[in-house]
Amino acid sequence: MTIDETTHMCFACSPINPIGLKLVFADKGDTCVTRFVPGPQHQGWTGRVHGGIVTTLLDEAMAQFLYRRDETAVTAELTVRFRIPAPVGSELLVEARQTGARGRLLTLEAKACLKDGTVVAVAQGKFLRVPPDALG
Ligand SMILES: CCCCCCCCCC(=O)SCCNC(=O)CCNC(=O)[C@H](O)C(C)(C)COP(=O)(O)OP(=O)(O)OC[C@H]1O[C@@H](n2cnc3c(N)ncnc32)[C@H](O)[C@@H]1OP(=O)(O)O
């Protein structure tokens, strides 16, 4: 897959999307990790990060796990359990790992934690392999 990593507009990870989260990922052991400090513009209920933003962090970490391993796959199903409210202004540490593969179906899990290790949310994702040219 050929994606120009300096010019693409992914809401989660583009370095140039003006309203994006600008996430930067790294591999750590058998996981893919990122950090994000949500601001007031990311909240839902006052002081709490919007669940859609937390979901984006989890989904993107799993997608990046695959992208960084040359898998061309899209999210086909995503389940998120929000354990505690994510406070605005507190750094979230996000990590994703693969849990299985069967044919085109890849299964992953991800979690978002506070700096003290408290788990904020966990996700299970199913990704389906697609042809590389399907993702431009
Ligand atoms: C540097 C840039 C990096 C950017 C990273 C960006 C990451 C963003 C991550 C995302 O958010 S991706 C965007 C959100 N997801 C999508 O837009 C996907 C939309 N859905 C689709 O495109 C299609 O539905 C999909 C490709 C997932 C499947 O369509 P297909 O026509 O290829 O497959 P089909 O529906 O025929 O299913 C194929 C097989 O998979 C099975 N399947 C499909 N969905 C499933 C599911 N959820 N769970 C289990 N099995 C599933 C299905 O039953 C079937 O099994 P069999 O082969 O045994 O018959």
From TrEMBL:
Membrane topology: Peripheral membrane protein
Chemical reaction(s) catalysed: (5Z,8Z,11Z,14Z)-eicosatetraenoyl-CoA + H2O = (5Z,8Z,11Z,14Z)-eicosatetraenoate + CoA + H(+); dodecanoyl-CoA + H2O = dodecanoate + CoA + H(+); tetradecanoyl-CoA + H2O = tetradecanoate + CoA + H(+); hexadecanoyl-CoA + H2O = hexadecanoate + CoA + H(+)
Family affiliation: Belongs to the THEM4/THEM5 thioesterase family.
GO cellular component: cytoplasm; membrane
Sorted UniProt keywords: Apoptosis, Cell membrane, Cell projection, Cytoplasm, Fatty acid metabolism, Hydrolase, Lipid metabolism, Membrane, Transit peptide
InterPro entries associated with the record: HotDog_dom_sf, THEM4/THEM5_acyl-CoA_thioest, Thioestr_dom
Keyword Protein biosynthesis appears in the UniProt entry: no
Enzyme class: hydrolase
Organism domain of life: Bacteria
GO annotation terms (biological process): fatty acid metabolic process
Descriptive protein name: Acyl-coenzyme A thioesterase THEM4
EC assignment: 3.1.2.2
Pfam families noted in UniProt: 4HBT (PF03061)
Subcellular location, record wording: Cell projection, Ruffle membrane; Cytoplasm; Membrane
GO function terms (MF aspect): hydrolase activity
Keyword Membrane: yes
Predominant place of localization: membrane
Organism listed in the record: Desulforudis audaxviator (strain MP104C)
Residue ranges annotated for the Thioesterase domain, each copy included: 47-120
